[in-house]
Write a structure and sequence with these properties.
Blueprint lengths: L2 H17 L8 H8 L22 H15 L3 H12 L4 H8 L6 H23 L1 E2 L2 E2 L25
Antiparallel strand pairs: 1-2
Helix pairs in contact: 1-3, 1-4, 3-4, 3-6, 4-5, 4-6
Length: about 160
Amino acid sequence: MIKEIEALMVHWGEQMRERGQGGGLGSQLGAIIEWGGAPPRGTPGSRILGGAGCGIDHIACEVQAAVAELERLGRAPLARLALERYCAMATVRDQMKAVGIAEGADRTYRNWVNRLHQQVLLILTLRSGSTRGYPVGAQTNRHLKVATGVSRAIRVPRAL
């Protein structure tokens, strides 16, 4: 188990349980219809939208995208394990049953959780676009230098 990914996944599960996937801010037209005209304004000034229906935060969105990517990549049982473990807060026995692990195979279950964490870490790393400052994926090399420190730009011969 990767502790940092476990913390992210727990946060994602809490966000999904508390706020759901979509935002729930009301429409202006709906308020006009409901109040039969302009709705009451309340106190003047701006307000911070705490947890009042504004959906999950950015970190939880990224974890949600990683779980969805797992499902698209053909790793649906791992995505199912993530949903059961972190969103539904199911018991370990129910989680094992949901993904098809034999009852009593605790080591196999721990291996699955570890594999889930590794896959989510990999997907989040690729989505972030960098690993320790090095670009990931197809990049143009015009701004990069080779590890030896020599630029790929046109070399000017030195005078003797």
